[in-house]
Every structure is written in structure tokens, then in C-alpha cells.
Write a structure and sequence with these properties.
- The chain has 254 residues and is α+β, with helices and mostly antiparallel strands.
- The protein folds into three domains: 50 residues; 74 residues, 2-Layer Sandwich (Alpha-Beta Plaits), CATH 3.30.70.330; 66 residues, no CATH class.
- Helix content is 23%, strand content 17%.
- The protein has five helices and eight strands.
- The strands form three sheets. A four-stranded antiparallel β-sheet has the order 4-5-3-8, with helices on one face. It has a two-stranded antiparallel sheet with strand order 1-2.
- Strand 4 and strand 5 form a beta hairpin.
- The two termini are 50 Å apart.
């Protein structure tokens, strides 16, 4: 539920009707966790009845398996590919072709949303399609925040959004895909930071959430080793002999 001035009254009503709920404030939204699917549906109906803005979080079981099929022809027909996969007893929700959005050119890679069933994991066993050798991999999302093209908020998609629509192009009360502006905007104004020259979806916007890539974080042993190495350096390294200086340099570079 989106944070607003009357959030406390709404939470009181929810906790009165559904006392097993747990509430937590996360990035401007109140996460409401419940213990049963029935209570979840009841809370959703209550929020809609009171005109509250909120987003839905899909359970892991309800989320489709996203896989990428590589090395098919670039002009592969998506409907034909769907029929081939469904002929192998997989339930396919959607197929889209990955593209280089900077160059506007397609890749020979196809993103497939597979509905989870008893055999959905077997899709990784596919080795050929239409007598062509292919490779099936798990889809890996980029490490940046997603933006909703319904309300222009972050960290959720339009499919699960129950917030008021707000166009990313003109700030109108409609979804971005319904905007009358269909051509390139020469000097756009960001609806989040009011800056000129970019839209709110630009990752360089000061209001665009910055995600930290934990892969590049130094581990505790690395930090400890660096500190110990620096502490062991003499106060006047210019007086070192050449072999001693080389050994210290090697210790720093290890």
C-alpha cells in the first residue's frame, strides 16, 4: 500500500479484520503480509473499496519461469515457436525477442515465460528446435531498478500496479502507452526531478534508484589484508633498498 496521510487508519482496519498481518515500510510503500490466500484477497478488496493505491507481489509459485532460448534464426516466428514448445507439453505464457535497444536490432535470443507445472523444469533439457541446435538458459535481469509504465513509480511492473496512472511523457492521468505523443520528444522534462533533456526512465536521472552491485564489494578478509599491509609500511619508504621495496610492492598487489 502506498504511504499516505491516512495510512494509520487503514492499517487499523486491516489489523482489526485480519489480526495475523505484518506491516513494514519499504521504499514509500507499506508491505502487508498475511497468512492465507483468502485473507490476501480480502485485504485487496478492502484497499480497492477505500480507493488506496497499492502494488501486488506475486508469490514464487505464481511467477512464470523466465528462460532464454539462444541460436534460433533472427526471423524466427514467435507463434511457431510457441506451438513447438506447447507440443512438448509446456504451457507458454509469452514469448518476446530480445533486442539491442540502442541500435534497434534484434538478437537471435527469445525470452520465454513458462507457466510453472509439474514438468516446467524439463524445458532446460531441450537441445534442438526445428532440427537446429539451441541453448536454454535462465533469464538474468540487469542490476537496475524497474520502472512502472502505468504510474511511473519504481520497483514494480505495470502488471501488478493498482496505483493511479501517470504518463512518463506528459505527466497526464493516463498510462504511458495511451499517450497521444507518439514521436520523439526533442527536449523532454522529467516528471520525477523536473530536469530537462531526459525522461524519468533514464538511469542517469538523480531520482532514479541506484542499486549497489554487491559483486564489487570488498570482503572482510580483503579489507583486513589491505589494512595490515598498509600498517606494515615504514614511515619513510624512500630509504628502502630495492629488494625490500619490491617485496612490499608484491605484498600490496597480492
Amino acid at each position: 500500500m502506498k504511504m499516505d496521510s491516512s495510512y494509520n487508519l487503514m492499517l487499523q482496519e486491516i489489523n482489526r479484520l485480519y489480526p495475523e498481518t505484518e506491516n513494514k515500510l519499504i521504499k514509500g510503500f507499506i508491505s502487508i503480509k498475511t497468512n492465507t490466500p483468502e485473507n490476501r484477497e480480502g485485504i485487496i478488496d478492502l484497499l480497492k473499496k477505500n480507493g488506496k493505491e497499492f502494488t501486488l507481489s506475486e508469490s514464487n509459485e505464481d511467477r512464470p519461469l523466465k528462460i532464454v532460448i539462444k541460436y534460433l534464426p533472427i526471423d524466427q516466428d514467435k507463434d511457431e515457436l510457441k506451438n513447438v514448445l506447447e507440443g512438448k507439453c509446456f504451457k507458454i505464457l509469452k514469448i518476446s525477442q530480445l533486442k539491442n535497444y540502442r541500435l534497434k536490432t534484434p538478437y537471435p535470443y527469445f525470452l520465454v515465460d513458462v507457466i510453472k507445472t509439474q514438468n516446467h523444469q524439463n524445458i532446460y533439457n531441450i537441445k534442438t528446435i526445428n532440427h537446429l541446435k539451441v541453448k536454454v538458459e535462465t533469464y538474468r535481469r540487469r542490476n537496475h531498478a524497474t520502472i512502472c509504465f502505468k504510474c511511473s513509480g519504481f520497483h514494480h511492473s505495470a502488471k501488478n500496479c493498482e496505483c493511479h496512472p501517470k504518463c512518463i511523457k506528459c505527466a497526464g492521468r493516463h498510462e504511458t502507452r495511451e499517450c497521444h505523443i507518439k514521436t520523439l520528444i526533442e527536449n523532454p522534462i522529467c516528471i520525477n526531478c523536473n530536469g530537462e533533456g531526459h525522461l524519468a526512465s533514464w538511469r542517469g536521472c538523480p531520482k532514479f534508484p541506484k542499486l549497489i552491485n554487491s559483486y564489487f564489494k570488498s570482503t572482510c578478509p580483503q579489507k583486513l589484508k589491505t589494512n595490515l599491509t598498509l600498517q606494515s609500511l615504514p614511515t619513510n619508504p624512500e630509504k628502502l633498498t630495492e629488494p625490500a621495496a619490491q617485496s612490499i610492492n608484491q605484498g600490496i598487489c597480492e
